[in-house]
Amino acid sequence: MDSSSTIQGAAEVDADLMRRTLRAMIEARTLELKLSALYKAGKIVGGVYLGTGQEAFSGTLGCCLSRGRDLFAPLIRDQAGRSGFGEDLLDATRTYLGSALGPMKGRDGNIHRGRPADGLLAMISHLGTAVSVVSGMLVARRMKGELDGVVGATCVGDGATSTGSFHEGLNMAAVEQLPLVVLVADNQYAYSTPRERQFACDSLIDRAKGYGVAGHEIDATNFRECQEVISRAVSA
What backbone phi and psi angles, to 5 degrees, belong to 184? Predict the structure, then answer.
C-alpha cells in the first residue's frame, strides 16, 4: 500500500518521467478548469469532482504505468492519473457532456468512464471496491500466463480503507503476492467522518504492516517525493 513516504537516498528520478508527469498535471488542471466552468454554466448534468492539489500524486502513478500492459483503476479526482495513463481528452469531455460518441455511449454517469480493454478501468462508486477488482484481474492474468511485467494500481481515499472490499482485496493481494500498488489520498475526512472516527491506529501505514506489505507516507503535494516513492513502488 503506497500512500506513501520519503525514501532516504532515493535514486535520481528519470527526467522523462518528470516531464510527462508535469504535462499530465497541466493537462488535467486545464481540462478541469473548463469542466468546472461548464458545470457552473449548467452545461454538465451530474457531479464534477476536481483533483486540484493532488495532481502530482495521481499523475505520477498514471505516468509510471504502461497503457495496454498495466491495469489502472482511477477514482473521481484522478484526472491527472488518467491523463498520465493516456486517456483521450475527447473521452473525458464527451462523457461529461453525455455524448453518445464517448466510451460509455452517453450512459452510466459522467465519471464512470473507462477503456477496460486498454487497462483503464471505469470508476466504481463503491469506494474501496477497485482494490478487489484490480486484484482479481491480476489473478486472472496470472491464470492466463499473462502477468509477467504487469502492474495493477488504484487510487483511493482514507475512507475507502475502512471498507470490507479494501481489506479483502489487499489481503488477497498480499497472500497471492500480486503486483498491486494502492495510493491512499488521506484528506482527513471520509465524507463528513474525521480520521479519529475512522480508525484507531496511529497511521494508515500501520494497516499496510498488518498485511505484510510495504507502506510509505509522503506529502502528496511534494512533486519530488511523489516521483521518488511511486516510481519505486511501481518498479519494485
Answer: -110, 115
**13, 40 Cβ separation under 8 angstroms:** no
Q: What is the enclosing helix (H) or strand (E) of 92?
A: helix 89-96
pTM comes to 0.89
72 grid coordinates: 489502472
Residue with cell 453525455: 98
CATH homologous superfamily for 2-235? Answer: Thiamin diphosphate (ThDP)-binding fold, Pyr/PP domains (3.40.50.970)
Cβ neighbours of residue 230 under 8 Å, at least 6 residues apart? 2, 4, 57, 60, 61, 64, 181, 183
Domain locations along the chain:
2-235
User: pLDDT 10s digit of each residue in the chain, 236 long?
Assistant: 444 433 333 446 789 999 999 999 999 999 999 999 999 999 998 889 999 999 999 999 999 999 999 999 999 899 999 999 999 999 999 999 999 999 989 887 888 899 999 999 998 877 889 999 999 999 999 999 999 999 999 999 888 898 999 999 999 999 999 999 999 998 888 888 888 888 888 888 888 988 999 999 999 999 999 999 999 999 98
Residue 152: strand pairing partners: 71, 180
| Phi then psi dihedrals of residue 88, to 5 deg | -70, 130
